[in-house]
Amino acid sequence: MTVEIITVLAIVGVMLICLIREVFRPDFIVLCALACLMLFGILSPADAVKGFSNEGMLTVALLFIVAGAVQQSGIFTKLATVLMGHGDKPRSSLARMMLPISALSAFLNNTPIVVMFTPIIRKWCKERNISPSKFLLPLSYATIFGGTITLIGTSTNLLVHGLMIENGMKGYSMFQLAIIGIPAAILGILFMCTIGYKILPSRKSSEELFQNTREFLSELLVESHSPVIGKTIEQAGLRRLNGIYLIEIIRADGEKVAPVTSHHKIKSGDRLIFTGLISTIVELQTMKGLRVDTGSTIELEDLKNGNQILLEAVISHQSSLVHKSIKQNRFRMRYGGGVIAVHRNEERINNKVGDIVLQPGDTLLILAGRDFINRWASSKDFYILNPVESPDVMDYKSSIISIVTLIGMVLLAAFEILSMFKAAVLAVLILFFTKAITIESIKKYVQLNVLLLIASSFGVGIAIEQSGTASLLAETLIHYTTGLGLIGLITILYLITTIFTEIITNNAAIVLMFPIAQATAQQLGVDPIPLFMAITIAASASFATPIGYQTNLIVYGPGGYRFSDYLKIGVPLNILYLLVTVFICYFILL
Predict the structure, then answer these.
(1) Phi and psi dihedrals of 275, rounded to 5?
(2) pLDDT at 375 over 80
(3) Measuring CA to CA, how many Å separate 291 from each of 116, 262, 274, 300?
(4) Over the range 378-417, which residues count as b (16 or more CB within 10 Å of their CB) and which as e?
(5) What does pTM read for this prediction?
(6) Most exposed among 167, 176, 382, 409, judged by the fewest C-beta atoms under 10 Å?
(7) Nearest-angstrom CA–CA distance, 171 and 188
(8) Where are the alpha helices (DSSP H) in 250-387?
């Protein structure tokens, strides 16, 4: 073992530990690993930055724009309730939801689809007295099923495509993965509509738990003789309270003030709405002229006014807010919205809101201005579950242009008239010159953290290959799987990739496994394509944990799920995808 191999193994090992422990965001961790590999002389500067000009990475960037234009059309959201039917046969409705969602996610980014459909499906379930937990996890799984069907189904597919091109291969065609993706998706949907539906729990969603306002909202009435009248919130001593905080003032004339700042003045007859540990509200009874309204029936709807809306946001896995309290994050000042309550693990956290330390998957109930969604819809810190009554819909002409452009792009790439990259460039130019998208919308839909992760990943992969680390690991893998044959080797590659995907990220898993799969194929003298396809499917088919794939995390809180729910349903799905992939790779593709 050379010094170079030891250095690469050490750097990649530290990178893995940091990814598993979530020390920083994945894109930053992989970028730091890339920088270390260059500083230690393993990579030349030219090789280190190769990923930033790679065709696969640039294609991902362009597809974010195309997908964003189609998603903002609002056409697909209107079809959702029609497709699901009346709900008299829930399993039939589940199939009618999963089939088109899988087809849609084969061509569009999975995350916005789940964010877009979650409130629609919850509303549909509420109107039919069906638990949303029976439909939201299948929604996430349906997008994962679809992502394994086409080249543009996920960024992972395009990452492998780019790595293949970088190594002098042709890369995937548009529907090359469909030979595995379609059979696996069909079996996955059948499983979810039969055994899976039975296993899925019937639980209260975060929306239902937030409705019980008596548990976290209380009201103080400012009496006419109160000495705090005319004073600011700061002067009245209502700013830094133990266990609760003031989220809104409802004036005697019906005017609603939110968010409440230190400088707002108190008036006679004001209703002061607090959230947090309601047991601590009694401390305020000692303040003369403030009366706890024990008969208050304050509802969430009462908090709204013409400029204020209530919405839910799910903390993302890569959020800069995690592991810090809401107060430390200065959430109200930073985002212009007040957190009223936080839902985690099927229950609302009974604590002072400002002291709650946020974790990935937490669902926040936020009172904010109507511009909150437009300003933070593309935030990487959380996923906003837009209110159903206010979708972001572009005009009819732009909607048609966007959908026709997407179809044209797919056909040009599918029939190999243009490469995927050139077809995507043409699509973006058409959308831009027809004004279906703007510079502002481009900024909104391009996910820079994903692009940085992919670009940095290329350099790490080059280091693993050029240093001889990939060959060493391939030799070790072949040695320990000699008695299992080629089918056993493919199975092991799939399993290792799946494990990496569940504990780190799908793109990072591919970075590690691609050079190993390539070196293994070279040493055995077999076609590397089936091995690449096996790890590609394994990296996307992540069902067993809420953290393995971001769409699983989005529905975690809104569906009221527990970690064990993902294991009960996800592990059988992982096994199903393993069997289908290994069978087709070995018996059909090799």
Answers:
(1) -130, 155
(2) yes
(3) 43, 21, 13, 21
(4) bebbbbbbbebeebeebeeebbebbbebbeebbebbeeee
(5) 0.87
(6) 167
(7) 27
(8) 331-335, 372-376
Res. 28: pLDDT tops 80: yes
Are 582 and 531 in contact by the 8 Å Cβ rule? The answer is no
Please name which of 448, 421, 416 lies closest in space to residue 63, comparing C-alpha atoms.
Answer: 421
- Residue 508 CA to residue 461 CA, distance in Å, equals 10
CA dihedral sign, ordered 77, 80, 82, 88: negative
* Contact in structure between 266 and 230 (CB atoms under 8 Å): yes
User: Which helix (H) or strand (E) segment is 184 a member of?
Assistant: helix 178-191
Band (566; pLDDT cuts 50, 70, 90)? very high
Q: How far is CA 100 from CA 94, 103, 355, in A?
A: 11, 5, 42
Residue in the block written with tokens 């290792």: 496
Distance of CA 17 to the CA centre of its chain: 22
d(CA 87, CA 93): 6
Q: How many residues in the chain?
A: 590
Q: Give mean pLDDT, residues 209-228.
A: 80
User: Rounded distance, CA 113 to CA 76, Å?
Assistant: 9
Distance between start and end Cα atoms, the chain: 32
**Cβ contact 257:307 at 8 Å:** no
Residue type, 466: Q
CB 43 within 8 A of CB 463: yes
pLDDT in tens, 173-188: 999 999 999 999 999 9
CA pair distance 160, 511, nearest whole angstrom: 9
Average pLDDT over residues 337-362: 84
- Match 């969604």 to its residue by tokens: 373
State the SS3 of 326-350: CCCCCHHHHHCEEEEEEEECCEECC
Query: Residue holding tokens 């009435």?
Result: 221
Task: Provide the residue type at 361 as one letter.
Answer: G
Could you tell me the two tokens for 98?
């999963």
Nearest to 505 by CA among 459, 470, 556, 454: 454
What does the pLDDT average to over 200-212?
79
